[in-house]
Structure formats: structure tokens, C-alpha cells
Specification:
2 copies of one chain form a homodimer.
Chain A: H1 3-11, E1 27-29, E2 36-45, H2 56-73, E3 77-87, H3 93-110, E4 113-121, E5 127-136, E6 152-156, H4 161-169, H5 179-185, E7 201-205, H6 209-220, E8 223-227, H7 235-239, H8 245-250, E9 256-261, H9 266-275, E10 280-287, E11 293-297, E12 300-301
Parallel strand pairs in A: 3-4, 8-11
Antiparallel strand pairs in A: 2-5, 3-5, 6-9, 6-10, 7-9, 8-10, 11-12
Amino acid sequence: MHEFTLIERYFAPLAGEAGLGLADDAAVFTPPQGRQLVVAVDALVAGVHFLPDDPPETIGRKLLRVNLSDLAAMDATPLSYLLTLSAPRDTPEAWFAAFATGLAADQAKYGITLIGGDTTSTPGPLSLTATVIGHVAPGQALRRNGAHPGDGIWVTGTIGDGALGLLARQGRLPDPDGFLADRYQLPRPRHGLSLAGIANAAMDVSDGLLQDIGQLCKASGVGADIDAALVPRSPQAKRAGPTYLETCLTGGDDYELVLAVPEGRAADLQAACARRDVPVTRIGHFAAGNVAVRVTTSGAPMPIARPGWSHF
Amino acid sequence: MHEFTLIERYFAPLAGEAGLGLADDAAVFTPPQGRQLVVAVDALVAGVHFLPDDPPETIGRKLLRVNLSDLAAMDATPLSYLLTLSAPRDTPEAWFAAFATGLAADQAKYGITLIGGDTTSTPGPLSLTATVIGHVAPGQALRRNGAHPGDGIWVTGTIGDGALGLLARQGRLPDPDGFLADRYQLPRPRHGLSLAGIANAAMDVSDGLLQDIGQLCKASGVGADIDAALVPRSPQAKRAGPTYLETCLTGGDDYELVLAVPEGRAADLQAACARRDVPVTRIGHFAAGNVAVRVTTSGAPMPIARPGWSHF
């Protein structure tokens, strides 16, 4: 099938007005009046970020969600996205159909439309990117560099399910109810929390909680003290046992938010999260001095072999 | 080397203000007052869009230029870009350094800055995308759907050098002065022509001149009559001989503009292009009726085996 047919059949129906029917060289849109734009891009590669035999519906949705999680970290409202898809030449048409079905479902869920993209072949694994565009009130984007010593360290949802879900998908961990695999395949970006004025800093947890908190510490020039026992884990993650605690703290693929919140705003944070039915848990506090993440368990320092994921 | 080190060392120095030092989850910027935004994304894959042994400096520049060519087709002014880079784990640090040097050179040339991105590993070939953001006066973006019967078909620069340059790089065509290989590796996007009010339609030539004109015809509901002898070719392309005429017309990788211009605006077009030292040539006209591209040579129909490139 010619790539133009592929685009017309499966992607043009996903296009918003700015996408010009995906029949032009670029998207054109009028930015929302009086707002700043927030733009992020993430790449997913088969065998690295998802498994080649993951259902194509979930692959498109994961692609959108990991990107929407970046917007959520900045407290931005999503607007639209662009897609690149580099696929092996023998990718069956049914794969594209299912992939587009997944995108359509999440477009409806998150109120976004496709506005552009590029479809190419590759001699390698399926590789995807989404560029997401959102908007925020001027000066209100949450940054990583605003944490103050004394701020509580809070995380949304539960940590570790994604990393354990990958092990489950690889047959290395039991997952009787499929919960962990589902969390690996379908992250839940924490959009719409409206935390400007409540959180001093935020980032999304994608490369491992401890490593990502380390990044936030570096940007803010603070240290962090974390009690591993306070890190929220799902019943399914707890069932994996204490051997997997470190995997949860460092494995990544969480797409939850980590937040720096002054103690006086903790109640506001909890109320904002409750309005969206998002659990939020205090796991420690930021501290002055040395830019380092200190983790304790039962009051004793917890040794960590590798704080998170690196591609290289 | 940890990917964070890679980003800090080679990509953070390329970041504009909106990129927040590449230390946050997304870019944040205030869109230019009273302008529409224009956004395009293109993917390049080693072995498909460039050769794995192309100089890394040119790979980054080609990535930017194919994307800037999309903005040029819409008559938009470039502003910034986001980058994704999926590289094999054994990619040497020197490759990243040279790649970033190429990006820096073209950032300066085109007045753009890096504002975000993602760096991942891949078990496959090096894969890159750039998302470029530009702006245009409201309603002034050039589209593909505005061509009228009777409009002249004009192209900038010369056609076919990129496709012949690939053959030269593969050792299948002599290229004594390296001109053709250079045109394959370093396209020249035709930005800044300011053709709103002069051209009725525009697109960039990337997948083969005849196929791309066919796309423009389809969007505009017109046909096209082209005299192959009028299609501008470089001395080096002409030297390849008549056997390669069809390759020039259908090979792609030109990143020139094809324009629909009313006969009464031809002089304005020529003046606008002359101001930027861009050659521009009339190769035929759009016609009412059947949406088809008719090519003649010496007055006789020229049979075309395949009008352009398809990835699938």
C-alpha cells in the first residue's frame, strides 16, 4: 500500500482543523490567546520502550500518554500532537488500523487531535515519536528548579507497576490479573491537576523515581531524603515481595508526577488531587546542602545499585 | 556515557530560552503576537534517508533542512525546533560531537534554536526526527489547495541533484566535483521568499517532482501539463545524460519548492526569488479537468514508470 493511502485511510480521520487534512507540508493554527505554549517530544522504539508484540492499540496510546505526562508535569493543558511512525515495510495493514484505533480512543479521552506527522519505512524496529503541544497561563508552567529545602516530596499514584509490568510481560514475574502488564502498556498521565501556586516544582517519573528525583534536586540545588517504606506501591507490586522494592524505586516507566510542595500547601495538594481522583503520597522532603538523594528503609540507609535507567 | 551527560555536553549548548536548558519536561514559550504558528515534523532513518557513513555534521543539517523546507513551502518564518535521536548504543561520543556541530552551524544560518527533545537507544539504525515551529501572518500560509487552471507551474533551483547524489554516493554515477553528493547531503530549503499574494499554492519537492505535483493537483482539483525539457537541471545533472532525466523528475530529495503562480504575477515571483538569489523556472501550467500530471518531451507524451517515492 502506498504511504499516501495509509495516511488517508488511517491518519487523516484523526486530524484536527490545524492539520489541514494532513494534505499540506505543515500544520497551521492560531495559538490560544494570552497563553504560553508548552511543547514536548518523546520517542518510543520497539524492544526498548514497548514490546514488539504489544497490542498495536496500546502502542499508540502509550506513545500519547508518555508525552502527555510531560505536559502534565508542566501543568499544561494538552491541545494537539504530531506523529512520526517509522515501520518495517512488511507491517500489515491491520497493524496500522489497530494502532490508529488506539490513537482515536486517547484523542477523545484527552481532548487532543492529530495535526501533522511523517510516515517512513525503516530496516529496523518500529520507531515512533509524538510531539505534543499544550498551553499554560503565562509564567505558570511548573518547573523542576523550584524546590525549596523543607518542601515535602509527593508522588501521584503508585510507583513501580510499569517496571514490574515489563518483567511480567517478559514472563519473569507472575501477574495473574494482568494489572502490572496493563500499567506497563497504558500509563495514566496525571493531567489537569492545576497545581500552579501549590507545587514549587514538578517532573514526571519516567526513568526511575530515584534518578528522576535526583534530576529535580540538581535543577533546584537541593538534596532529598526519602523513606522507601512511604513510596506508594500497588497491592500487586507489594505482592512481588521485598526483593522488588529497588526495582520499583529505580525501574521507571511510571509516568506519575513527583512534586515539591511546601508543608503549608499539603492540604491544597491533597484537595486538588482528590478532585481528579488521583492518589498522592508524601515520601520525604527536600533538604538544604548536598545535592543528593538519600533513601532510608526502617531508619537505615538503603544502598541502591543503580538509581535509574540510562539509554547509553 | 550517561544520556544526561550526552545531553548536557552536546545538546544543552544548542538550547534557546524556550528550551529551559533542556532540564525540564517540556519547552515553554510565548507565541509571537498576532501570528499563526506553523509546525512540521520529518523523520530521517539511516539507510533510508541518509547513508550510515554520511558525515555526522551533514546528517544533523539535513535533518533540519528537510524540515525547514516544509516551513518554506508554507511561507513561514522558522523559530525553533525539537529533536529526537535514537542511536545504537555503541555510537561513539565523537559522532554526537560532530552531529551537534552541524546543528549549531545551521541554527546560526537559519536563526533557530533547539527547545526540546528526546535521546534514546535503538537496536536498529540511527533514527532522527525534528519538529520545526515557525510563524506566519494570519491566513497567509501557502497551501497546496489553491492552484487554479492556467496558473504557471514554477520550481525553484534545480531538480534531480539529490536523487543523482544518492547514486553518486553509492558509486553508481560519477561525481568528479562532489556537487551531486553535496546536494544529497545538504539540501537548501528555500525559506524567506515571502510569496503570499504571489503564489496561489506551494509545496516542497521531496518525494519526486511528478508525484509531488500530482499531490498538489489532487489538493487543488486541477491537472498539470509539464514540459520535461523545461525542468531545470544543474550542469552536473545534465552531464549524467538523458537516461537520467526520469530519475531527476521522480527521484525526490530535492527540497525545492513547486509553485502555482498566476501568469500576471510571474514577474513578481521572479523578483521575489531574485532578491534571495534563488533561481526559479516555469515548467508548465495547471489545467482544468482531469486531476492528472501530463509530461511531454519534444511535444510527445513521456511515459513515466513510477512518478515518485513511496516508503511502503
